[in-house]
Design a protein that fits this description.
This protein is an alpha/beta fold. Helix content is 40%, strand content 26%. Strand 11, helix 10 and strand 12 form a beta-alpha-beta unit. The longest helix has 18 residues. It is globular.
Amino acid sequence: MAGRTAVVTDSAASLPAALADKWGIRVVPLLVTIDGESHDEGDGVTSSDVLDALVEGSAVSTSQPSVARFAVAFAEAAESGADHVVAVLISGKMSGTVNGARAAADAAPVPVTIVDSQTLAMGTGFAALAAAARARGGGAPDEVAEVARAVAASARCIFTVDTLEHMRRGGRVSPAIAAVGKVLSIRPVLEMVDGEVQMVDKVRSTQRARAAVMARAEETVAALSRPAAAVMVLGDGDFGDDAARALEVAHPELAMLVRTPVSAVLAGHTGPGTLAAVVVELPPEVT
């Protein structure tokens, strides 16, 4: 580890393992429970496993990491030579993960700064990457935390789902939004706003909803100085690859384009057919 500040995130950040390894980011897994049996996200259960379970009608639920899991991650960072930890985590309005990390931080062997990203998926993932790059460059802990907050604040996370039923069951959308899902043929366009899910549009087909997601993503890419994007899906078909390819062709100026599945824990709430696009302003240290 080149820097003295270590970066930790959670698995809901959907950070591909190769990127986490490249930048030395520790990932604390959330839990996914399928038919009463709990698994760590990642090695224990994948988004494909969750997709299969949902299609088969199995009961799927999720929960935040235990305080002990964060305690281990913070201790391991200290043992590896870190004298400070910055934890970049899923929105506190969507999960209790931040609270668990704060509890573990109180007893950690080194100071821990908690960054509530106020977003999720690769919105959090890109923020963690920026933090790790700043740390590797020798940035002080407050600088590492600040760049994470800046990237997270720039994030636009837009997505659509085939049904709102999974999000309704998990309490991740308001009753008013959930009611829209009961209208035949209506597909919602959803976005993270101030740390929680809001409906920003509704259209009359899955194809139009996916097009609306990518149109908003392109609009955001065009407005940023050094944009990075992620395209994330859950389900069969080529729609994710097609969307990513079209975005890359239209915007060769992208500093980074990540194509990755929706993480297992998020898959449990969004369900099959999910398409998400995340766009951020990425600092030059991240390549």
